[in-house]
Amino acid sequence: MEKIKVGAVDCHVVYWEADMPQFLTIKRGPDERYPLIWQCVTGGIQPNEKAFETAIRELREETGLTARRIWTVDRVNNYYDPKYDKVFLIPIFGVEVDKKDVQLSNEHVDYYWGDVESVKRKILFNQQKNGLE
Question: Which residues contact 11 (CB under 8 A, 6 or more apart)?
């Protein structure tokens, strides 16, 4: 049985307000897996989809935002998921957007734009905090 899978992506979204970067975090809904946690934009890679394509799609689906620029971050997150009995490797992307008008999907209930430290304080998972840095 395959025990390692690249099946999801993490996206850290930045908007430049003058010379100050503002980062986005979103809060999962109460009925979602990992309810009411703050996280970066995340999502599963669909069959025949490249990881960067997933990042662009998930950004649009979860926030209504469009990527102006996208790049890979020099690390890969990982976690063990007992639901699937697999270790997941998660490529990390930085995504620059040119507006802050978030339209949340039904998976999320709130969003927050802030500097890197205030966003890190909200995010639950340490690897997502490290990816944000």
Answer: 40, 41, 42, 55, 58, 59, 92, 93, 94, 95
Integer Cα distance of 101 and 112 in angstroms = 11
Q: pTM (2 decimals)?
A: 0.91
What's the rounded mean pLDDT across residues 55-74?
97
The span from the CA of 1 to the CA of 5, in Å, is: 11
The confidence score (pLDDT) of residue 88 equals 86
Q: Is residue 40 within 8 Å of 132, Cβ to Cβ?
A: yes
